[in-house]
Amino acid sequence: MSKYFVLFFVLFFxxxxxxxxxxxxxxxxxxxYTAFGLSSYLLGDTGGFAFTALLGVGKEVWDLISGRGxxxxxxxxxxxxxxxxxxxxxxxxxFRPIIIFRWVF
Length: 105
Prior knowledge:
- By secondary structure, this protein is mostly helical.
- It has one domain.
- The chain has helices spanning about 1-20, 25-65, 75-90.
- α1 runs antiparallel to α3 and α2 packs across α3 (about 75-90).
- It is globular.
- The mean pLDDT is about 85.
């Protein structure tokens, strides 16, 4: 029972928190969610986390260096919320999916 409560808690508060901050955070959440699902299937949980975290951090570093975007801590929070939600979802299933995604628009 507590496993489902934690899953609900993470998913609900991730989405509610992102709704307050704007559309860009939804994109970060969605991309990280899907990237973790695919990369964890290919690389395992640790590899999937490392790949997806580097993808999010690399995008923020690119925004900072290039000057084309704005590097924000909120984007990284949305990235890691997507990773945590995807991890919870993948481990709640009796099988290992190849691709997962969540529409949050």
